[in-house]
UniProtKB/TrEMBL annotation:
It comes from the Bacteria. The keyword Iron does not apply. Residues 179-344 form the Glycosyl transferase family domain. InterPro entries: Glyco_trans_1, Glyco_trans_4-like_N, Glycosyltransferase_grp1. Residues 16-167 form the Glycosyltransferase subfamily 4-like N-terminal domain. GO terms for molecular function: D-inositol-3-phosphate glycosyltransferase activity. This is D-inositol-3-phosphate glycosyltransferase. The lineage of its organism: Bacteria, Bacillati, Bacillota, Bacilli, Bacillales. Its EC number is 2.4.1.250.
Amino acid sequence: MQATNLLILSPVAERGGAERVMVDTLKYLNRSKFHAKIVFFEQGSLVEEMRSLGYAAEVLDAGRLRDVGIYVRVVGALRGLIRQDAIDVVVSWMPKAHLYGGIAALLEGKKSIWWQHMIPKPHWMDRIASKIPAHGVLCPSRVSKHFQEKLTPKKRVMLNNLGVDLEQFGSKVHSVSDARAKMGLREDAVVFAFVGRLQRWKRPDVVIRAFNEAARGKNAYLLIIGGTLFGLEQEFEQELKQLAEVGDPSKVIFLGHQKDVGAILEAADTVVHASLMEPFGMVIIESMAAQKAVIAVGQGGPVEIITNGDDGFLYDGSQQQLVHLMGRILDGQLPLEEMGRKARLTVEKKFTVTHMAERFESNIRFILN
């Protein structure tokens, strides 16, 4: 059987959540059945990373959407690539890419599909992307799919759960004591972790406030793993550090961006997730793969991942209930190790990169039929 040729379009070339999903999907793609070429709309580290994985990758500078001349040029260049490489399906990673890829595919009479990484909002880009013809829209969760269907009720909106690379998380290369010693943490302390970009919608401020209250006078630390990205809300990190000063600043440790989050997580007892309407929760499944019981808000994507009280905790999103759960953990009332083992099993059964790539392949085959 002849391989299916894909043209993958990404508006950015640095790692964010959606871009990490793209890289992992292509890393585990069945290359005997699918060939892919990747086009980025700007320069960045992902260009060489994709080439190192054996993919052809190039850059088409798309500039700003408001520049009609550049837009027409980019769409024309994409049409040329579709013809040159006998592309079967144009896959646009994120709505912005579909503004170009969807039109190029339509003009060339080819199938197109795009990735909706978020819960769509009534933003002009989501609305326009949803109106451009497409044979499918991939969503990471049922909640994301539900809201996307309100924008594209007649189109094929398909579920494509995310997955984690089990080799990167939960390998236990270092012992807990070694991981803590490396960061100067007491071995007998209770260690919480927040992982994610420092943006207001992810609510790390709520986590810090809850920790300040619950951990007062206790042997505990809070690791803040992540920083600002893409130039968004750069002042927020300083606000968070000032908030940490309200409690014991020596107990709230800002680690910034980390390439090997799995190694850092080995030092933690549990991971706290605070987004009120998370479209999926990549950090959640990564932490679960690392055998950590995750505390997450009981709406959106986390509800589709965590079984409350079994392999993690779901709370109502309030600071008050988060303080209560943290207090129970600090008092040793919850079986974190047992829940962590169950969390790992949940990921192994449902949320690996292999599962994610297989779902992607299945969705591609579906739109071709």
